[in-house]
Every structure is written in structure tokens, then in C-alpha cells.
Amino acid sequence: MLVERVKYVIWAADLARAAAFYQKTFGAEIIRSNSHISELEIAGAVIGIHGGGEGKRTWTGISLQVANVVAGAAEVVANGGGLVREPQEEDGEAPHLAMCFDTDGNEFMLIRKR
After folding, report:
1. pLDDT band at 17, cuts 50/70/90?
2. Of 40, 60, 84, 101, which has fewest CB within 10 angstroms of its CB?
């Protein structure tokens, strides 16, 4: 079987707000949108945001690699998201992980290359 594309779908109580968060925070490009779902491309990956969610805190499994986790976490918060776990130094090294959530409670990780 030939897989044509892989898309990871998350839910949002407010589709427009969630799409705007990913656009503003991660530079996501909306590649398809209607009243039910928006598909966004981030670094070659496709995330579908489906409306009709309950806005509850949900772990997604999404991991986004950025150059600076501390700066990235601050940007998540500045754009309406939040932190489950703030970036912390480990063994004297700069933080490599921040546990975050978007405007609709979808949890994701920010990581840096180690």
C-alpha cells in the first residue's frame, strides 16, 4: 500500500483560535481549511485541527524541535498557551524539554536537539 500523506489530528473547541495559535507560535501554514477542520503544515509535517472538541487537557504525542526551548516556551505562553512543566537545566546543560499546551488544552513537547 502506498501511503500518500500522514496527518496527525487534534481537537479544538475553538478551531479558529487554535489555528491562529499554531500559525503565530510556530509559523504554521494553513494548507486547507473549512468550517470543520484546518490542516496546517509545520516543518513539513501536517497537523489537522478538528473543531467540535471539548477543550479538555489532552496529551497529543506531538514533539516540536526548536533551537531554544526557554525562548520557545515563553512564546507559547505569550501566544495564549501554557506550560505543564517549565524548561529546566539538566546536568548543567541548557534545558532540552518543555511540556506545553495550546489554547485548547492539547499538550505537546518542545525539545531541542541534543
Report:
1. very high
2. 84
State yes or no: pLDDT of 20 exceeds 90: yes
CATH superfamily for domain 7-111: 2,3-Dihydroxybiphenyl 1,2-Dioxygenase, domain 1 (3.10.180.10)
Domain ranges of the chain: 7-111
- Rounded Cα gap, residues 103 and 48, in angstroms: 15
Whole-prediction pTM: 0.92
Nearest to residue 19, comparing CAs of 5, 6, 34?
34
Tell me, rounded to whole angstroms, the distance of Cα 8 from its chain centroid. 11
Which cell numbers hold the place of 95?
534545558
Backbone angles phi, psi at 79, to 5 degrees: -100, 15
Q: Compute how many other C-beta atoms are within 10 angstroms of the C-beta atom of residue 75.
A: 17
CA nearest 62: which of 14, 6, 13? 6
